[in-house]
TrEMBL record:
Gene3D superfamilies: P-loop containing nucleotide triphosphate hydrolases. This is ABC transporter ATP-binding protein. CDD domains: ABC_NikE_OppD_transporters. It is a peripheral membrane protein. GO terms for cellular component: plasma membrane. GO terms for molecular function: ATP binding; ATP hydrolysis activity. GO terms for biological process: peptide transport. SMART domains: AAA. Belongs to the ABC transporter superfamily. Coiled coil: none annotated.
Length: 326
């Protein structure tokens, strides 16, 4: 499989009144065609910021983005707004936790689907409407004609997320970025939506970058997992290996907290302690305050992300030869 998206040393730093926040720091990752990569971590770990950078959604005063995001031969970070907009929604689509936030409350679902499809796919209104109905059926809604005439507030959260997915796949994107797409939904609906995403992916060879705090979702969906903590990747690897043999103490803690799909974020993490304040980070392993294996070196030097097994990497001094006892 060839590489679809390659993120090279991405950093996203924000200047705030209190100081500079390194929301994402030197993150590199690769997504192959048709692959599902999950980024997992607690809120504020930088997973959403990473996704938003890919979509070119982080702009404005005080935002400093560094590194490269290569989509095919194009560096998305060097594209102008217009060109980026053509790729966004067409080749790369995104769905969010709150579908309501990306829908227009005063237009019907049909109106919101038909216009952009007609435009992007160069279809007549009639053809776009027919295609929209097909897509709504494809995402498991039984009366598509009726849904087309509904306003967003008339639909349940699960229905809305299905509609969002229908919109996202309407231009047959090569990559779907899904940021906590099922977090707001109840467990049964969540499972149905994940099933549907898997099916769409299998039929279309679309790659998925899935952002989640939920290891149950990771287990269901991922080919490859990236674990983030305080803006950095602390571990990554192929999903079965990572679940069987997590190397980083943070990943081990996450897996021990035995999440059940559908649990709320605040119930999930039982690792003692708190995520460090991103304003006050000194060179160190950022997990050291919460780590049962912390050594002297962990408090003063940052561990690099290095190989810890077949196709698995971790950033932890436990695996650095010679530094083991600090
Ligand atoms: Fe724990 Fe040290 Fe490894 Fe950080 S580097 S996870 S503090 S052992
Ligand atoms: Mg988020």
């Amino acid at each position: 499989m060839s590489t679809l998206l390659e993120i090279e040393r991405l950093s996203a730093h924000f200047t705030t009144e209190e100081g500079r926040i390194k929301a994402v720091d030197e993150v590199s990752l690769r997504i192959l065609q048709g692959e599902t990569v999950c980024i997992v971590g607690e809120s504020g770990c930088g997973k959403s910021v990473t996704a938003m950078s890919v979509m070119g959604l982080l702009q404005g005063a005080g935002v400093e983005i560094g590194g490269k995001i290569k989509f095919g031969d194009t560096d998305l970070l060097s594209l102008g707004k217009h060109h980026l907009r053509t790729i966004r929604g067409h080749e790369i689509a995104m769905i969010f936790q709150e579908p309501m936030s990306s829908l227009n409350p005063v237009l019907t679902i049909g109106e919101q689907m038909i216009e952009p499809m007609a435009l992007h796919l160069k279809l007549s209104k009639k053809e776009a409407r027919r295609r929209a109905v097909e897509l709504i059926e494809q995402v498991g809604i039984s009366r598509p004609g009726q849904i087309m005439n509904n306003y967003p507030h008339e639909l349940s959260g699960g229905m809305l997320q299905r509609v969002m997915i229908a919109m996202a796949i309407s231009c047959a994107p090569k990559l779907l970025i899904a940021d906590e797409p099922t977090t707001a939904l109840d467990v049964t609906i969540q499972a149905q939506i994940l099933d549907m995403l898997r099916q769409i992916k299998a039929e279309s060879n679309m790659a998925i970058l899935l952002i989640t705090h939920d290891l149950g979702v990771v287990a269901e969906m991922a080919d490859y997992v990236v674990v983030m903590y305080a803006g950095k990747i602390v571990e990554e690897g192929e999903v079965t290996r990572l679940f069987e043999s997590p190397k980083h103490p943070y990943t081990q803690g996450l897996l021990k907290s035995k999440p059940i799909m559908g649990q709320r974020q605040d119930e999930l993490f039982s690792i003692p302690g708190q995520v460090p304040n991103l304003l006050e980070l000194k060179p160190s392993c950022y997990f050291h305050d919460r780590c049962a294996h912390c050594m002297d070196v962990c408090r003063t030097k940052e561990p690099a992300l290095g190989r810890v097994g077949d196709g698995q990497k971790a950033a932890c001094w436990l695996y650095e030869e010679g530094e083991r006892h600090g």
